[in-house]
Design goal:
This protein has about 170 residues and is of the alpha/beta class. The protein is globular and about 45 Å long. The protein has one domain: Purple Acid Phosphatase, chain A, domain 2, CATH 3.60.21.10. It has 4 helices and 9 strands; from the N terminus they run βααβααβββββββ. The strands form 2 sheets. The chain has a 6-stranded mixed β-sheet with strand order 1-2-3-5-4-6, covered by helices on one side.
Length: about 170
């Protein structure tokens, strides 16, 4: 059996605000329109890929967070459309950027580890909004990065600051 399989999802078309309230921004949606059809294709293809995967570890990567305590918060569209597919197919990690911080969230409602590694810029904003402290395993508002080690028996994640100092570690 395979050790790990990674699935990359184009999360931007899921976010309603980019379509309904673009705040003067112009987005070129060639290849995405009609949106509903595009999203359904993404979800169907992802679900099929996850279902057919024989990998010990399933990891999904997207730009936007499903769950986040930082400035953008949870992405409601991903919570309602993407998360049920990830949970039904035993995804282990959902990794994203978008929010400029490092964080690990794990809830009692989901076995998925939600990992944000977006600490590349605009850090130190001082924004933190999370209502269930027991779910927040780690939050760092500064710049940094993560490393992921995967073996047949475990996944390990280390969170680093820009100097390479380990700030937080987690493993299965």
């Amino acid at each position: 059996a395979e050790i790990a399989e990674l699935f990359f999802v184009d999360t931007t078309p899921f976010v309603d605000a980019y379509f309904l309230n673009p705040h003067g921004q112009y987005y070129d949606w060639r290849g995405v329109s009609p949106r509903e059809s595009y999203l359904q294709t993404i979800l169907t293809d992802l679900e099929m890929g996850l279902r057919e995967s024989r990998a010990k570890w399933k990891i999904v990567v997207g730009h936007h967070a499903i769950k986040s305590a930082s400035i953008h918060g949870n992405t409601k569209e991903l919570e309602s459309l993407l998360l049920p597919i990830l949970e039904a197919n035993n995804v282990d990690l959902y990794v994203n950027g978008h929010d400029h911080c490092l964080q690990q969230i794990s809830t009692n409602q989901s076995p998925i580890q939600f990992i944000t590694s977006g600490g590349g810029s605009k850090a130190w904003r001082g924004y933190y909004n999370w209502k269930t402290p027991e779910d927040m395993k780690y939050f760092y508002d500064g710049q940094g990065f993560i490393s992921v080690k995967i073996t047949r028996t475990e996944i390990g994640i280390a969170f680093y600051d820009v100097s390479g100092n380990i700030l937080h570690k987690w493993d299965t």
